[in-house]
Amino acid sequence: MIKALLSIFRDSPNSFEGQKENEKVLLLLRPHFFTIAIRVGFLGLMCLVPVIVGLIFLQYFTAASWLNVFFFLSSVWYLGLWLAIFYALTIYTLNTVIITDSRIIDSDQYGLFDRKISELHSHRIQDVSIHTNGLIETFLQFGDVTVQTAASEKQFVFHQVPRPDIVKDVIMQVTAAKHTGIKATTPAGSTVNNPGI
Amino acid sequence: MDVDLASMFTLVTIFNTLVVGIFLVYWGMVFVILYHLTRFGIGVQPKRFAALFLFGSLALSGVVVISSMNVDINALLPS
Lengths: 197, 79
Prior knowledge:
The complex is a heterodimer of chains A (197) and B (79). Chain A has 6 helices and 7 strands; from the N terminus they run αβαααββββαββα. Chain A has 197 residues and is α+β, with helices and mostly antiparallel strands. In chain A, the strands form 2 sheets. Chain A has a 4-stranded antiparallel beta sheet. About 3% of the residues of chain A have low confidence. Chain B has 79 residues and is mostly helical. Chain B has a domain of 47 residues. Helices cover 76% and strands 0% of the residues of chain B. In chain B, helix 2 packs antiparallel against helix 3. Chain B is elongated and about 60 Å long. The relative contact order of chain B is 0.12. The model of chain B has no long low-confidence stretch (mean pLDDT 88). At the A-B interface, helix 4 of A face helix 2 and helix 3 of B.
């Protein structure tokens, strides 16, 4: 029972709302972890503020009997930081691109109540290009993937996704599969959550 | 009926109301974030984040409650 309950933290079918019957998820993409690591790292540094304040003013707090007030304010500070860190992680984790064997669903989360979902059918894909810019993106292997479409929304840009070369290959496979009938597959050795990593 | 406003709005009452207010806002936000992670999250990662966030929030809330109970707000007033 407990094992079954805990399994949701290990395995997931990557199903999503609106998934069609027999529709197979090939890739589930999120922005590269580096993009969120900067923000979380900055918030992590903010954890040091009460420590620094405590070290500087410890004698004053003790003499004025303000030590308990300082501990209370510090705990509220950490509570706020915890919320800020997970707010950032929530926005990060809800920014997804789902590539299935028949379509691409791009979900952009700008805030908790600000969300944009775009859908692109594979037969409308005309061209796919990737853009890796700078030292960090080159070494950590992430970049932008631009999908040119024949639809009214001319371009789909997936920002800072890991291994854009693999993503491009999978999208091209999906597009080719529409014409040739050969089914597209996830690249060997890659996981659905993080292609090739 | 005589209402003693001074005894109603003591410093302790104001402090306790402030702490309760902080908790209401915090747990309201926690609910919204957990709802988003569990309702819209796809895959394993959002579920892990949700579990970690919930346990961390409970632990930190406990710390805030204990530290607020230790505060003697009346002692802060200049005698």
